[in-house]
Amino acid sequence: MIVASIRRIFTSFRTEEEERSYSRMAFFNLLGFLGSCVLFSFVAQKLSRQPRELAHLARATALVKAILA
Q: What GO cellular-component annotations does this UniProt entry give (predicted)?
């Protein structure tokens, strides 16, 4: 209830076009934030897989060397 009253006070000082502009800007900022969260999540997943793949490769190499020796 209080938030709606505060919002009404602020919107009374802006024109309709300014209000739309602020609303669009806030929406696109939200989309950018969510998009960057998804991007960082994918990058973190990729980076967390690399050490395991390297460990697998090291074990496979050691196994091949043990078989050949």
A: mitochondrion
Number of domains in the chain: 1
What are the DSSP calls for 55-66, one per residue?
A: HHHHHHHHHHHH
Residue-level pLDDT at 39: 95
* Mean pLDDT per 10-residue section of the chain, whose length is 69 residues: 82 86 95 96 82 73 85
Residues in CB range of 19: below 8 A, 6 or more apart: 11
What's the predicted TM-score (pTM) here?
0.56
Range of the domain at 31: 2-68
The rounded distance, in Å, linking the Cα atoms of 61 and 57 is 6
